[in-house]
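User: quick one, sequence for these C-alpha cells?
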C-alpha cells in the first residue's frame, strides 16, 4: 500500500471513530452516571429506618452529584459470602458494597476487596476517623480493606441496688461478691453464654483479657492456650455455682430476662441491646416501661436511659482478668470496593461523600449505632450518658474482631467447645479447645 493510500485509510478510520463517538456520548454518559451498590437495606420497599435512610441517600446523591445509585438488596447474613463468590467466580460485582468488618480476614485471604489504604490515609476525614473503628477494617497485613461508618461494641449494664459500690472490675472480684448476692436470691451476672455470638460478646474478649490468643497472622485458629483455659474455667465456675442463671446457656436471647426483671445484678450486652431492654424492673421493684422508638434509635436509650436517670442503673466496662484489661470486640458496618469493580474512582467518590459529618450522623441514627467520625459522635444526638458510655468503652477497651479466614466456622467451633466444657465439669478444657482448633485448621488445609 502506498503512503498516500495509507494516509487516506487512516483519515477514514479517524472520521469513522469520531462519528461513532459523536453519536454515542449520551449513552456513555448514562453508563458513567450510574453506580451499582450492594447493601443489606431495602430502598425499594422500605420497612425500617435504615431502609428509608438509603432511599434518601439515593435521592440526595442524584441531586448532589448527578449519579444514579442502583442498589441491590442482599440479606444481612448472605451479603459477605455472596460478594466473595461474585468476585472469586468472576461474576458480576457491584462498584461498591456494604461489608461487615468481621469478614476482613475472610476477604483478605480471598483477595476480594480493593486495597483502600492510600485512599483512606489521604482522605480529608482520615484524621477524624476513630482509630479503633479503622482497626476493625484493617487486615492482618496492614491493608485497609473497608471504610467503617458505624460501630457496635460490648460493655456491662448493672443495677446499683445490687452493686452500690460499682460493678466488680475483675473476674476474681465478681467471684468474691457473688456468694452474698446469691444468698439474697439474686444472680451476680447474666450473659450470652451459648451459640456463635457468645464468642463475639463474651468468651473471645475474656480470653484476650487473660492473655490468651485466638488467631494467628495467617488467619488460623490459635485458641488452645493457657489464657483461654483460665477464661473457660471462670465461666464454668460461674455457671456451676449458679452465680449466673442457666438461661445464659439457652438458645436465642432469653439470657437478658433475669436482668430485665431485676433478678441479675449485671448484664453483659452489646450497644444495640437497649432497644430490647424494656420494660425494666429494678431489684427494688421500680418499673421503667418506655416504649421502643419507631425508628430504632433513641437519644436517651429508652428504658435504660430512664433507669439511669433515676439512679437505679449504671454502666461499666467488660469484666477483665485479674491484672488484665477489659476487652471488647468492635464490629463495624462498612463500605468496601470489590476487585473487578468497573468504577473504582467513582466508588471512592461515593464513600468520600458519605464520610461527611452530617451524613455519618444520619446513618448512625438510622442504623442505631455509634458513628465512626469523632466529629459525628460529638453530635448532640449522642450526648446522653448511655451513648457517652458506649463511646468511652469503645475507646478504652475496643479491639478488632479476630481475623479468622473462616470467621463463622471459627466462632461456631470455639463456642461449642467452650459450652461443652462449661456444662460438663469433667471435660478437659485444653483438650477440647485443641480438638476444635485442629478441626478448624485442618479444614483450611
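Assistant:
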Amino acid at each position: 500500500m502506498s503512503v498516500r493510500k495509507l494516509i487516506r485509510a487512516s483519515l477514514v478510520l479517524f472520521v469513522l471513530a469520531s462519528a461513532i463517538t459523536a453519536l454515542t456520548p449520551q449513552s456513555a454518559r448514562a453508563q458513567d452516571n450510574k453506580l451499582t451498590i450492594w447493601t443489606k437495606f431495602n430502598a425499594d420497599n422500605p420497612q425500617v429506618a435504615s431502609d428509608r435512610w438509603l432511599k434518601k441517600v439515593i435521592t440526595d446523591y442524584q441531586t448532589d452529584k448527578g449519579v444514579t445509585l442502583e442498589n441491590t438488596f442482599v440479606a444481612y447474613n448472605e451479603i459477605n459470602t455472596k460478594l466473595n463468590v461474585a468476585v472469586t467466580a468472576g461474576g458480576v460485582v457491584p462498584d461498591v458494597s456494604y461489608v461487615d468488618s468481621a469478614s476482613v480476614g475472610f476477604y483478605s485471604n480471598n483477595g476480594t476487596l480493593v486495597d483502600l489504604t492510600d485512599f483512606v490515609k489521604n482522605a480529608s476525614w482520615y484524621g477524624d476517623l476513630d482509630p479503633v473503628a479503622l482497626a476493625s477494617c484493617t487486615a492482618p497485613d496492614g491493608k485497609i480493606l473497608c471504610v467503617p461508618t458505624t460501630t457496635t461494641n460490648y460493655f456491662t449494664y448493672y443495677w446499683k441496688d445490687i452493686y452500690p459500690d460499682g460493678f466488680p472490675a475483675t473476674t476474681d472480684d465478681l467471684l468474691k461478691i457473688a456468694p452474698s448476692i446469691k444468698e439474697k436470691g439474686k444472680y451476680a451476672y447474666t450473659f450470652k453464654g451459648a451459640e456463635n455470638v457468645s464468642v463475639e460478646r463474651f468468651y473471645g474478649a475474656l480470653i484476650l483479657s487473660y492473655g490468651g490468643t485466638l488467631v494467628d497472622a495467617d488467619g488460623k485458629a490459635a485458641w488452645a492456650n493457657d489464657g483461654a483455659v483460665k477464661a473457660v474455667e471462670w465461666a464454668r465456675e460461674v455457671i456451676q455455682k449458679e452465680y449466673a442463671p442457666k438461661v445464659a446457656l439457652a438458645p436465642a436471647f432469653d439470657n437478658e430476662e433475669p436482668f430485665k426483671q431485676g433478678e441479675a445484678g449485671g448484664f453483659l450486652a452489646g450497644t444495640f441491646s437497649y432497644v430490647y431492654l424494656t420494660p425494666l424492673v429494678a431489684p427494688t421493684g421500680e418499673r421503667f416501661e418506655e416504649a421502643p422508638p419507631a425508628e430504632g434509635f433513641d437519644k436517651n436509650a429508652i428504658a435504660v436511659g430512664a433507669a439511669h436517670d433515676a439512679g437505679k442503673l449504671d454502666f461499666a466496662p467488660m469484666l477483665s482478668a485479674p491484672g488484665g484489661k477489659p476487652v471488647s470486640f468492635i464490629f463495624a458496618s462498612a463500605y468496601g470496593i470489590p476487585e473487578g469493580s468497573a468504577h473504582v474512582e467513582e466508588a471512592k467518590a461515593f464513600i468520600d461523600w458519605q464520610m461527611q459529618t452530617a451524613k455519618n450522623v444520619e446513618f448512625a441514627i438510622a442504623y442505631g449505632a455509634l458513628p465512626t467520625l469523632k466529629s459525628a459522635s460529638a453530635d448532640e444526638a449522642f450526648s446522653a450518658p448511655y451513648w457517652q458510655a458506649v463511646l468511652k468503652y469503645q475507646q478504652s477497651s475496643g479491639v478488632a474482631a479476630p481475623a479468622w479466614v473462616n470467621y463463622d466456622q471459627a466462632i461456631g467451633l470455639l463456642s461449642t467447645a467452650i459450652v461443652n466444657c462449661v456444662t460438663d465439669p469433667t471435660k478437659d478444657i485444653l483438650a477440647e479447645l485443641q480438638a476444635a482448633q485442629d478441626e478448624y485448621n485442618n479444614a483450611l488445609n
